[in-house]
Structures are given as C-alpha cells and as structure tokens.
Amino acid sequence: MYVAKRVAQAFVTFVAVVTVTFALVRSIPGGPADFIRAQVMRSGGSDEISMSEINSLVESYTNIDPSTPLHVQYFNYLTSVLQGDLGQSIWYNKPVSDIILGAAPWTIFLLSVSILLTFGIGIVLGAVMAYLEGTRFDNGSTIVSMFLNSVPYYVAAILFVYVISIQLGMLPQSGRYASGLDPGMNLEFIVSALRHAILPIVSLVVTGFGGVAITMRGNAVQEIGEDYIRVAHLRGVPGRRIATRYVGRNAVLPMYTNFMIAIGFMFGGSVILEEIFAYEGLGYYLLSAINTGDYPLMMGGFLIIALAVLICILIADLTYSMIDPRIEDQGSREAY
C-alpha cells in the first residue's frame, strides 16, 4: 500500500511537470509554432504552403496541433509523452527520443562515476576527520573542504581545461572520444573514452567531496557523543568495531537520501559541464536546443531531467527503511 501510494505520488508529480511544460510552450512568445512558421516564411515557402499545412508541420515536431481546442492539444501532448514520443528535433531533424537515448548513456556514465567518487572520498575523509577531531589534520582538512566546496564546478572545469589540456597537453579538452575512432568494445576506444571523461569527472569530484566530508564529520562526531557508544567502550567492544559498525554505519545513514537526490540534480548540473568540455551528453544537447530555439528537444530534455530527479527521490524513499530498520512507522518513512 505504501509503495503504491509513493509511486502514485511520483506519477502525479510527473504529470504536473508535463502540464507545466505544455503551459510554458503555449505561453512563451515566439514558441515552437511561431518558430516553425518563421522558418517556413524565411525559406520563401509561405506563399505556397497553407496554414493547415503549417499546423500539421508544427504537430509533427511538437505533438501539438495549434488548430485544435486547448484541451485536445493537452491530451494529445500528454498521451504522446507517456508513450515515449517526445516529438521531432527541429535543429537535428531526428526524433527527440533517439537523440536522448544516444546521449543519456554518456551522461549517466559521467555522473555515476563522479557521484560514487565524490561520496566515497567524502565519507572516508569525513570519518577520519571525526576520528582525529581537534587535531591539525582535522582543522586543515575542514578548511580545505570548505574552500573546495565553495568553488563552482564550472570554474574548476575551465581551470583544468586551461592548465591540464591547453598548457600541459596531458588530457583532451573536448569530445567524448578521439575523432576517427569507431565506437565499440575495443581497448583503443575504451581508453580514449576514459581519457576524455577524466577532466569532467575530476571537476565534479574536486568541488563536491568537501561538502560530503564536512557532513560526514558532523554526523560521526554526533554519534561518537551518544550514550550507546560510551556503553560499548565500557563493555570492552574493540575500537575498530565501534568505529565501523556503530559510528560509521549510523553516520552514513542520513546521507543516503542526499546521495540519491544528488544523482537526479546532477543531471541538471551537467548542462554547463558538458558544454565546457563539448561532451555530447544530455546537458550538451539541452543547451544546444536552448541556443538554437529547438523547442521539442528542449522540452524533451527538461522532462527527462525531471523524470530522473523523481525516480531517484522515489528510490531513496522506498529503500530508506530497508537500510535503516529503526524506521517502522509508515507515516515517517518519507526520505524527503
């Protein structure tokens, strides 16, 4: 019952996002319909093509027929989205779903590695900082973590491109893999893809692990001060067991929700990162759509990012009680 309720809430939220997207497209001056009409007029075909043919062209790109009543437009648009039909890209002249399916694996690879490294390094560093609380290592690590966490990832990305790629020539500065290579499961292609992904990943990890480390340190210090830890010491429980099974486990639990939500929100952050490195993922195509006025691709990109956030939050909500058995009350299981 609880799972069905949460899934239903996520579905309603997604439909609300689709509705807002539809309303924005309808209300934006110079929207997709006006853009396509302008393209036809610019190509000199306005005298030879009728308004009904222009509306048909608009419908083929956006799944919205301007000549039909508003509620019919909304129903047709919602039905098409739920069936996976996101329209036709005006700029690339390809189905939006094909573009997204081709770009999504690269973005997922980039962000999943970045998030795992960010949380892995941050959790280990935060645990060590808490264990060495008050020492020079703790104070120095806290200052460095706060500084790195305050640096925007795109600033670090531009700095890495200038120093490591342009000045030192150690790593490629753009693209997903070297030009001339055929994608496939061969060593040359895999090595090239990894080399091209290093700088974007490092940009996210370097500016992200500090915040995780500070959070982990605070959680661990709080756990160390709990009564059950003192009791464990008095009972003679080994220090390593207290650190890993008691303090470490309970300090990590509150960060699980942040981990899942970060996955979703990093899709939005990929827009600027992928543009800096000309990395042809979801963010790259979304920004390209904004710059070129490619409304169908823009709408598809927004919907996919919103869907990723919803799915990650839903997974966090449904699995939180599995990793923390103390949560039994159905009403208090929401992770956000």
Task: Please write out the topology.
Blueprint: H1 2-27, H2 32-42, H3 51-62, H4 70-82, H5 96-131, H6 136-150, H7 153-167, H8 187-224, H9 227-234, H10 239-252, H11 255-276, H12 282-292, H13 295-323
Helix pairs in contact: 1-4, 1-13, 2-3, 5-6, 5-8, 5-11, 5-13, 6-8, 7-8, 8-10, 11-12, 11-13, 12-13
- Count of DSSP H/I helices: 13
Helix content: over 70%
Molecular shape? globular
Number of strands: 0
Strand percentage: under 5%
Give the CA-CA distance, first to last residue. 19 Å
In terms of per-residue confidence, which ranges show pLDDT below 50 for 5 or more consecutive residues?
none
Mean pLDDT: 81
Largest sheet: none
**Class from secondary-structure proportions:** mainly alpha
SSE pattern, N- to C-terminal: HHHHHHHHHHHHH
Radius of gyration: 25 Å
Q: What would you note in describing this structure?
A:
With 336 residues, the protein is an all-alpha fold. It is built from 13 helices and no strands. Helix 6 crosses helix 8. The protein is globular, with a radius of gyration of 25 Å.
Sum this structure up briefly.
The chain is mainly α. Helices cover 74% and strands 0% of the residues.
Give me some keywords for this one.
336 residues, 13 helices, 74% helix, single chain, mainly alpha
